[in-house]
Design a protein that fits this description.
alpha/beta; binds pyridoxal-5'-phosphate; elongated; single chain; about 30% helix; 20 strands; about 375 residues
């Protein structure tokens, strides 16, 4: 059998683009959130490989900053995280308990966020088999229609507290649907619904807020918040000044610069026409690297302080930028273009792409050289 090729470490020299991840900024963001939360605890959400930034690098930095509870979506992510952290922290699986997987959760000391009476019964059976009260979270839906106990199951549980026998409910949680819109009436509706949940299920601690929820006011904080995206520098609340430190910078190298003297079109579909005289630079980043195709004719790069608009379509491996306004020696082969940087942070790129910062981060590709700075 031929052996699969060993993964190569893409050095800065060999990479078409460099993704710099500032771990000190992640730690500073954790501390800022923890400070906002006062006596409440900040449980870091590190699902999807810490929002694309690298779980194995990010989680230890958060632990060193004081984080004691970590949340992921999948049980597989939780097992990976347990290996990174050892037994020093609680690892919560937000997606709940997968059928027949109870043993793996218990084996790796994972805490499922149980989201139905069926999951609750399955975890109870696992506790019984092991003759041990294993911790769990209880997830109650207050308006997402996604995961969590629906109203009828909440009713049943409140009427029959025996259903919780043998379980250690560490936390009762719910999740906000519209927290990034401060004035959305759904925030208050869900808060009232969660207060009602707590009257019926007062055991353990309460967890309600995501990143945005932390900034919605004291009422939303409860005992444990679950911030994710703000740790990674994205603005918690849309349209408000961003208090978080920027964590990522993406710099692509210019491969070629083309001079245009007579009118010509750029790229697939000939969607942009350069009238000339001007210069077009090509950099080796495309939609296969998570530079979304919706940034075609919309994205903005920067060379130093000078904006260089994306012209033509984003292709799989390349984009083209109009560098006419940049002095030639600054826009030459090998020069770096900020595709995410001080002038075009993740939130701005997301806006230009018609999406949210979460998607920009979790799409960041595997072909970049990843340079981690700071940390422990
Ligand atoms: C992803 C997630 C979070 C974190 O949300 P952010 O908006 O990234 O802070 C918190 N709770 C649950 C249930 C989630 O799925």
């Amino acid at each position: 059998m031929p052996r699969p090729p060993a993964p190569i470490d893409i050095t800065e020299m060999l990479a078409g683009a460099v993704l710099t991840i500032d771990l000190d900024a992640v730690a500073a963001n954790y501390r800022l959130l923890q400070k906002r939360l006062a006596k409440a605890e900040a449980a870091a959400v590190v699902k999807a490989d810490a929002y694309g930034l690298g779980l194995a690098k990010v989680a230890p930095v958060l632990a060193a900053a004081g984080c004691r509870t970590f949340c992921v979506a999948h049980v597989g992510e939780a097992i990976a995280l347990r290996q990174v952290l050892g037994n020093t922290a609680a690892v919560v699986v937000l997606n709940g308990l997968l059928p027949d997987a109870e043993d793996a959760y218990a084996e790796h000391a994972l805490t499922p966020a149980l989201g139905s009476l069926a999951e609750l019964a399955a975890w109870q059976a696992e506790c019984k088999r092991r003759n041990k009260k294993l911790p769990c979270w209880l997830h109650v839906d207050t308006g997402m229609l996604r995961l969590g106990l629906p109203p009828d199951e909440l009713e049943t549980l409140a009427d029959r507290p025996g259903l919780l026998d043998g379980l250690e409910v560490a936390v009762v949680m719910s999740h906000l649907a519209c927290a990034d819109e401060r004035a959305h009436p759904k925030n208050r509706d869900q808060l009232a619904a969660f207060a009602d949940v707590r009257r019926r299920l007062p055991m353990g601690k309460a967890s309600f807020a995501n990143s945005a929820g932390v900034f919605l006011g004291r009422d939303f904080r409860f005992d444990i918040a679950r911030p994710g995206v703000a740790l990674y520098g994205v603005a918690p609340i849309a349209g408000e000044p961003n208090p978080m430190a920027q964590v990522v910078r993406l710099q692509a190298k210019i491969l070629q610069v083309r001079r245009v003297d007579t009118p010509q079109t750029v790229g697939y579909g000939a969607t942009h026409r350069v009238e000339g005289p001007g210069r077009i630079a090509t950099v080796p980043v495309g939609y296969a690297d998570g530079y979304l195709r919706s940034l075609s004719n919309r994205g903005t790069g920067y060379i130093g302080d000078i904006p260089v608009p994306v012209v033509g379509r984003v292709s799989m491996d390349l984009i083209t930028l109009d560098v006419t306004q940049v002095p030639e020696r600054q826009a030459s082969v090998g020069a770096l273009v900020d595709l995410i940087g001080p002038h075009n942070p993740v939130d701005r790129v997301a806006q230009e792409a018609g999406t949210i910062g979460y998607e920009i981060l979790t799409s960041l590709g595997a072909r970049y050289h990843r340079a981690y700075v700071g940390g422990i």
